[in-house]
Prior knowledge:
Structural class: mainly beta
Shape: globular
CATH topology: Elongation Factor Tu (Ef-tu), domain 3
Radius of gyration: 15 Å
Helix content: under 10%
Order of helices and strands: EEEHEEEEE
Distance between the termini: 38 Å
Oligomer: single chain
Amino acid sequence: METGEVRFIGKVTKVEEDISTIEIKPEYCEGLDRLDMYKEIKVLYWFHLRDNEKHRTVLTVIPRRHGETEERGVFASGSPSRPNPIGLTVVELLSIEGCTLTVRGLDAFEDSPIVDLKPSPHV
C-alpha cells in the first residue's frame, strides 16, 4: 500500500459553541500572510479520536446524524471513520492574531490536529 507523510501545522485549542480557536505552530505562522483577505477558509483537520485500525477499515456507514437509515459508502458521507481520518469544513474567518485564528463553524474537537488551511473565495 502506498503511504505519504502528513505534517500537522497546528491544532484546535478551544471550542466554545460555534466559535473555535486554532493555534498554528510558529514555524508555519508565516503561511498565514494575507489569509485575512478571505471571509471563509477551508480547514482540513485530523479525526484524531478515530485514528485506529478499527475506524480506518470502515467502508460503509449509516449517517444517523442526518436522520438517514440506509447504509452508504463512507466516501458518500462525512463520517469520521474512514481510511484516512481527514475532516474538511468551510468556516467563517473571524480574526487572525499572530499565529492564532478564530473561526465560526468548525466541527472539530479541541486538540484536533490541523492538516492544512486553504482560502475559500466567494463565487
